[in-house]
Design brief:
The protein has 16 helices and eight strands. It folds into two domains: about 220 residues, Endonuclease III, domain 1, CATH 1.10.340.30; about 130 residues, Nucleoside Triphosphate Pyrophosphohydrolase. Strands 1, 2, 3, 4, 5, 6, 7 and 8 form an eight-stranded mixed sheet that branches. The longest helix has 16 residues. The chain is an alpha+beta fold. A hairpin with a 3-residue loop joins strand 5 and strand 6. The chain binds a DNA duplex (11 and 11 nucleotides) through helix 3, helix 4, helix 7, helix 9 and helix 10.
Amino acid sequence: MPFADAAVLLAPLAPWFDSLRRPMPWRAADLDAPHPDPYAVLVSEIMLQQTQVATVIPYFRRWMERFPGPAALAAATEDEIHGLWAGLGYYRRARNLQAAAAAIAADGFPRTLEGLLALPGLGPYTAAAVAAQAFQLPTPALDGNAFRVAARVLALEEDPRRHAGALREWLAPALAAHGPSRLTQAVMELGATVCVPAPRCASCPLQGACAARARGIQHRIPPAQPRTKVTEAEIHLAAIASGGAWLLRPPGAKGLLAGLWSWPWTGAAADTQGAAEPASAYGIEAREPAGWTQVYSHRREAVRPIVARVEPGAAPPGLEWVPEARLASLPMGRRDQRLREAVDAPGEPLTVAGLEALQAILQGVKASSPAAPAPGRS
DNA sequence: AACACGTGGCA
DNA sequence: TTGCCAAGTGT
């Protein structure tokens, strides 16, 4: 493809980045040397997958304090790593990062693109980003920012992801010319702060070189991506206490919120209304705090929380009674953290639907099927 | 090749 | 409020 010389086109990015880069705890002071701590680069890059810098910073600091190197991370428990990742999302990243740390502790840090690509959780982008920032290898790292910047500078009107190979070939000489770590970060920084979806061209160091801007088409490059469908669900999420313990579901191995503890829950029936009979007739004291909508990447959940106290009994299959003192230390996603913080909050009296949900959970009705409605009353 | 996979910021 | 998107990867 007859692209203009990237080393020339992107030259203004180097001084721009040297003077305007944002401070980040994983950034090396010397942009021209190999990074003093490749593990820190790796941790930051995994955390930054689909996650903004400002969100990552406090998680990165806590993680590095607790797991300063690959050996410490490799020795941690699943609950520990998920606890430090809790709230950051995409929890598989934490497990992959630990597996990568174990491989690094055993075999040393890979210093080639191929070696990095073989680590779990590192795809084409992350392997290249680590190679460039940790080891100064001229490997083009194409993330959403880099694709957007490249597509605009070159006025590429198609989806730039379809031209990843050509764009990598185009970018590589510029990395070698201006420093792999510097230019890698500069392109992404530009995409994150200036060449954003609604671009701020007036403050762009590449405004004179940008083909999209010259043609006035920067706002529609790159074309919007089709989104995958989001399913809707409504659930009852129950904090059930008995004696000094809470009824919880231990972490699953796969699926949504894998690796995290959760409160038991059950699909809400849409057709049950009206006042409940006194729940005390069933040995239950309960209330329903205000609900909320929980949004995931591909699912929207209307959450109807219940807080209840019941008579002692065996835990239903798949659930565990967990001593109250341990509750605060269990890794939970945002939804379950939110109910954990609300277990002492006031609520409305239990509804019929809420009572049925409690009974379904306590009777061991399979609670993990999103579509499963609560059973009818007997 | 689609789809699963979390959460938060921003217009 | 709703929708888009973020330093993507695994299956």
